[in-house]
Hints:
6-stranded antiparallel β-sheet
Amino acid sequence: xxxxxxxxxxxxxxxxxxHSSGVPLAFSGIVEGSARLHLQHFVGDSTGALNGLAVExxxxxxxxxxxxxxxxxxNDYLDTPQITHRYNEAIATEGLRAVAAAPIIVESRMVxxxxxxxxxxxxxxxRLLDVLTxxxxxxxQQIAVSRALIEADARLSPEADALxxxxxxxxxxxxxxxxxxGDEALADEIARITGLLLEEEADGVAAPIxxxxxxxxxxxxxxxxxxxxxxxxxELGVAADTVKGYMKAAMGxxxxxxxxxxxxxxxxxGVLPG
Length: 274
């Protein structure tokens, strides 16, 4: 699994960890291969001393979690005999003492570790480990759902996939044309025809109500064609940052974790040709 695919769900989980537990700093380690963690995605006050640190399997708290595949905690990172102290300098610079960590495991493979850390020498209670473990399970479920949606979408036959792509092209070009014509009645008729390309229901089940703006639909329809933000911005005549804003808003309404999942969910909701 790519780091990019983990960024949104992991960062959201870290925000929830900090909110629920009150720790001053929550961060993650993304697994590289099977022998190290790459520390990133910090939520809370940080000096940056740990950002980008490579944690080897078996070393420090994260390396021990990576080795044993289970949640762990230490009450005084700098002095505990439970772990090696290869990373004490970075931990001391960051001012951390009590640290807990829990793994995120997808299809029997660890993909990341969530950390919660305190800047005092204190006894970590079970609540912090429970919060970390619960958020790790939430991320695992989000990833599983995202993969299932994408895999289901990918099982279309080549003919059906090609037909859907042609429908998406037609839908997108009609929407763009409706914005360019000066005749309001003609624009309304184009919009009516465009609506015929959308499914009323998805998979035989009434589609959920998703209220996307016209621009959000435009951005998603162009993203469905594989266009990047720069190309979408060019097609719509707006700035790339504006496209990012529309995409972020659409992803939020669809509860999507990435662009591809947003397109899949939009098709299932009947707001893109599916």
